[in-house]
Every structure is written in structure tokens, then in C-alpha cells.
Amino acid sequence: MLHHNRMPYRRLAMLTLAAVMLVALISACGKKEEASGSKGTVIATYKGGEVIDKEFDKYTAFQTIMNPQSAMYMSIPQFKEQFIKQYIVSKVLLKDISDEDKKAADTAADSFKKQLEEARNTQPELKKHMDDSDLSVKEAVAMYHDLAAFQSYYAAKGEELKPTVKEEEIKAEYDKAPSDFNIVSVRHILIGTTDPETGAELKSDEDALNLAKEVKTKLEAGGDWNALAKEYSTDTGSKDKGGLYEKQQAKAWVAEFKDAANKQEIGKVGDPVQTQFGYHVMKVESREATPYDKLKTEDKDGLKSAVAQTKLSEFLTAEEGKLEIKVTLPAEPTPTATGSPDASPTASAPAK
């Protein structure tokens, strides 16, 4: 439960991969816009092309299907501007995707099409959302196709950059957080606030913290870890082992738990530590540093991948600079006489 699966620089990858969903939109709906005689308002220009507000609105509708939380980010002007820039870079780089990756994307898109059509037939709200946004199945499938293709390109580019990583760069990456590689044995009792499977609330923060303090008091008074873990802990991965995680790398745990495992006094029950899972009552039983020259091959490979991701980020930034991108988003809507602003996060200027 306590392990995370976030990759280094995940935010950059997410922005890049999600932004490419819009690439197919240009080719998929461009002819339709021209035929209607209403092209829309240009919101970004770059060497070789431009981005239209109507295209971006359709993309937003598609992104909302794939990730409902995206609407929240699209309401932030700075995020929207960066998103458009990432989209443009992705559009240009898509030209370098191999035929093999395009064929793989064809297969992925065919599968997505079947799922989307079935969902439209069984979920009236999805059909209404797409109809209201003037987003066709064909357009959505085209976007998904290019997303799958760019995922392959992105992964391949990262692998291409790995051989360029030097030993001193790997060591420098290790030096940023050597404690990530500490080998730690720790006991904990988790007083959960939410069910990790359903997201349902188990306890309020206040109630969970109060109970965690009670458990700490019992442990300090000589309480048995095995008995108390079985009675109170909601961590199914350790409650039947006296709350023990034995000889694990600190980097495997979520940030707050990792920080406590690396800093808490050995052999002492610490104050409750809050994470996304709830409150943890912890006792570090042992902690051993791992010097760079003792790292396992897979650890060095992970560091090498992190450096390659940084190089990939630099590559994308350089490509963005070459394109001379200029974003001109419409001004945010002003409040009406009643003080209620336009609630639409993707409201765009009317076509000229």
C-alpha cells in the first residue's frame, strides 16, 4: 500500500503525452472547419502552422473523457498556455514516428474505437458530452491513435538518450538524494482515513490522528506490535506481520513515510506521520546507508533513466525554442452584473 509508482519527471511526460492528443484534431477536423467557412480564432502561432480555439475546445472535450480532472487544469491560464506549447512540439515531432509504431498505434486505436462506441451506447451522459462538444467518434479515435504513437516515440527517444549518459552524471543524480537508497526496517500501524480501493472515507483526519496518538501511547507503555497492528492497522500488507517492512529501500515509499523512515530516531516510536493513506505510528528498527559504489545494477539503471529523462526534457525545450511559439489566449471573462463569471474553463473568443 505504501509504495508509489510515480516515475521521475512524470509531470513533463504527462503534459507531453496528453498534449499530443490534439495532434490528430488538426487533420481530423480541419477540413470540416474550412467547409463551414468558420475557421475560428488563432490562439497560437509557430513556424509552419497555427492553433485555432475551436480545435483546442474539441481537444479539451476529448481530454475530459480521458481524464475528467483535466477541466480543472484547463481553467488555469498558465497551464493552458504551456499545454498548447507542448502540443505544438508534439505535433512537429510526430513526423518522426516510425512506420512500425504507427501500425501499433493503428491496433490500439481500433481497440479504443470499439470501447468508445460501446460506452456511447451505454452511457447517455458520454454521448451528450460528445454531441454538445461536436466531437465525433472518428475525431476521438484519431486523437487516441496519435497519443499511442507518440507514447512509443517518447519511450524510444528516452532509450536513445540513455547511452549518452555518463558515469559522472549518474553519480550526480545519486548525490541529489543518497538517502533514497537507505535500507530500512520499519514497523508501523496505519490509521487509515480513506479506503485505497474505493476512496471512501474511513475516518476524519481528526479522529484518525487522535486514534494514532492513542496507539502510540499504548506502544510506549509496552504494547505488543503484533497485537496492536492486527487490531488497529488498515495496511493489509503489514498488519499481520506486526506492521513490519523489513530491509526495504526508502525510495519505494511515499514521500512523507520515506522522510520519517530516513530521519526518525532508531528504536523510538515517533509522532504520527500523515500521508495520503492516513496517519502512521512508526518505529525504525534499523537503517543502513548504501554508498554509490555498492548500488545494484538496477539502481544505477534507474538513475541512468532519470538522467535520460532530464535530457529528454532539455531536448523538448530546445525543440520548443526553435519553433518560435507565440500564444495569444483570449482574455479571461469578466464578472457579469451579478458578479458571476463565465464558469466554462475553455470559453473562447467568438470567431471573427
UniProtKB/TrEMBL annotation:
Region forming the signal peptide: 1-28
Residue span of region Disordered: 329-352
Any one GO molecular-function label of the UniProt entry: peptidyl-prolyl cis-trans isomerase activity
Segments of skewed composition (Low complexity): 334-352
Alphabetical UniProt keywords: Isomerase, Rotamase, Signal
Domain PpiC: 184-286
Protein name stated in the entry: Peptidylprolyl isomerase
